[in-house]
Amino acid sequence: MGAKADELKREVCAEVDRLRDELQRVSRAIHAQPELAFEERAAARLLVDTLRSAGLEVEAGAYGLETAFASEFGAGEACVAVLAEYDALPEIGHACGHNLIAASGVGAGLALAALGDRLPGRVRILGTPAEERGCGKELMARQGALDGVDAAMMMHPSSVNLVTMPCVCLAELDVTYRGQAAHAAAMPERGVNALDALVIGYQAVAALRQHIRATERIHGIITDGGQAPNVVPERASGRFYVRAASAEELEPLKARVEGCFRAGAAATGADLQLEWGAADYLDIRFNAALAERFRVNAESLGREFFPIEKLPASLQGSTDMGNVSHRVPSIHPMLASAPLHCTIHNAEFEKWAGSEKGDEAAIDGAKSLAMTAIDFLTDPDLRERARSLFESAG
Ligand SMILES: [Zn+2]
Ligand SMILES: [Zn+2]
């Protein structure tokens, strides 16, 4: 396979270079108009239009989500999915750099499509909304987005090049208390204070944090704390994230968190409503065979990788790519789009996501993903190793 694969790799890299201006334009446009989970309408439209103007057939609103899309091309048995995210964060916009994920995923897809009949298998480009909350990839997978897919891959920006992202499970929880409004001065004895209930629940969670594993995290915000100081708050609500290293450890932690919020209801008499997200985010099932190929391909572009085992153990996030990695062999490598000191989810990272350094990460990401897809489609041994690693990790 060597010579043929090498030639195809040279071609996809040349194609990404040819697409450089267009990919930069797409990335910068998404960056300039950040949209939240499930609302990424302009980004989805732009990406769908970009694929269609290259002659690809694209299904918009794919797999049950309005802002998802899918495009499949090629022929043959093996199928690789290349994923593109494009949602942003409230207030700080593209501080997770998902505009670069979109450009790298679509760029890789376009470069592979340009091979035409010489593409040695099938490629499915998936536009996957709602990564920051909502677990969009899991929702799409439940509707069949990964059916017939043998491997899935994407690139996430970072401040350092990594073969994967240290990752834990995450459950989203919306908490709402309902009490009884009353004049806070004239007749407080008639009131049932929903905010008090939430504060007691919040403090109970704070106490719980002392007695959880070092790999576990609970954090949240108050999204509604009442309307006026002179009215006993009738309604109060918050949003909390609960994280643990595995799905097995997450379940009992969720139960303990529920207990904290029930304490608030018991203490005040307010009614409690707990609403868990439609799907929990799972940890990443690491696939060394695929990750190694991505690393070698990215190194061929001059990237140097930081040894993942040297990262501080506390550094960890969550991604719905974890859910994908429990269904098919997957990779979630990270490429540096910002200087070392700069971490994701802050305003400085957002600026770098719209910079030339960010563009370079998207371009290198597109090339590395396309080259790794070629490795996968041309090398039956790699497919076999990726599959057996996936199964033995299960
Ligand atoms: Zn992200
Ligand atoms: Zn993020």
Notes on the protein architecture:
The protein is α/β, with parallel strands linked by helices and 394 residues long. It is built from twelve helices and twelve strands. Helix content is 41%, strand content 16%. Helix 2 packs antiparallel against helix 4 (98-113) and helix 6 packs antiparallel against helix 7. The strands form three sheets. A six-stranded mixed sheet has the order 1-2-4-3-5-11. It has a four-stranded antiparallel sheet with strand order 8-9-7-10, with helices on one face. It has a two-stranded parallel ribbon with strand order 6-12. The model has no long low-confidence stretch (mean pLDDT 97). Strand 3, helix 4 and strand 4 form a beta-alpha-beta unit. The chain has two domains: 2-167 and 283-392, Aminopeptidase (3-Layer(aba) Sandwich), CATH 3.40.630; 169-276, Alpha-Beta Plaits, CATH 3.30.70.360. The site of one zinc ion has 4 residues, from loops.
Topology:
Elements: H1 2-18, H2 20-32, H3 41-53, E1 59-60, E2 69-74, E3 79-84, H4 98-113, E4 122-127, H5 136-142, E5 151-153, E6 156-158, E7 169-178, H6 194-208, E8 217-224, E9 235-244, H7 247-268, E10 271-276, H8 288-299, H9 321-325, E11 330-331, E12 334-336, H10 347-353, H11 356-378, H12 380-392
Parallel strand pairs: 3-4, 3-5, 5-11, 6-12
Antiparallel strand pairs: 1-2, 2-4, 7-9, 7-10, 8-9
Bound molecules: zinc ion (ZN) (2 copies).
The site of one zinc ion (ZN) has 4 residues, from loops.
